[in-house]
Amino acid sequence: MPRPGHRRPPFQANDRSPPPGRAPEDPTLEARASPGLVVSSHGHTVLVEDPAGHRRPCVTRRRVERPVTGDRVLWLPGPGRRGVVVGVEPRRSVLARPDPRHGSRPVVANLDQVVVVFAPEPDCPPALLDRYLVAAAYYDLDALVLLNKADRLEGSARSLFEARLSLYRDLGYRVCASSALGPGGLASLRPHLGGRTSVLVGPSGVGKSSLVRLLVPGAEVAVGALSRATGHGKHTTSASTLFHLPGGGELIDSPGVRDFGVWHLPREAIARGFVELRALAESCRFRDCRHQGELGCAVEHALADGRLHPQRVASYRALLASL
Fold this sequence. Notes:
The chain is of the alpha/beta class. 28% of the residues lie in helices and 23% in strands. The chain is built from 10 helices and 13 strands. A 5-stranded mixed beta barrel has the order 1-2-3-5-4.
């Protein structure tokens, strides 16, 4: 069975992904422009960090695709303290959310993994957790399943969540638990973040902001500085922000991907996002089988004889119905 965390070849544009960044049309602009990293994006304004660590608010030149947090860009000094983004370098990966007008819209770029955060309170329905994993698979991103607030679990509740973690671990996903309490509360999480660019996703209230504050000392101060630099005041709930982790790697906190749906994905992508269904699909009698009780469906047979977890099959069918 393929391992969900297996890294695939570098991102390439195809019919299922938003278009990658475009370089400047004027070669003289490219020759004069400096490289930079978008560390925060808020509407048409982005904050660009140069290789020396200096940051400058920038606007985007007309006819250049709007950059998002994580993009590598080319920029030129503009009037006052502002700069102008004149090109967006090709993206190696992207995570997008559905958009009624455009089908999908990039939210963050150049990611390595999606960290799916859930907690005892508020509980994350299995179908929602699986939705994030489907999206990660669709965009060729590794996935980490993280149980936060693990210190709040006792007795039967602990057994229930340990069983949930075991389900995903047995499917090949990387899983770990964390807690904001105690010096070792993040010990199992930190090794998964080093040297990689990660984005936190999950429902509100599971502790994503607390994780950022613990993982990045001075994160609140940094957000305040970003707000002043971009001129949008305190927009901690509406701007995507990239933080450099002390031990190496980057962490992106992006409200735009916390509750994104998958209704913009093709039907085939839903089945591919369930690794155990993908392995069985080749044995179905019909190639276009939707695994909903069709004649000769290998998934239906595996469910009947106990080889598939009913919860996962229910999640798959719920996501398929949402399309």
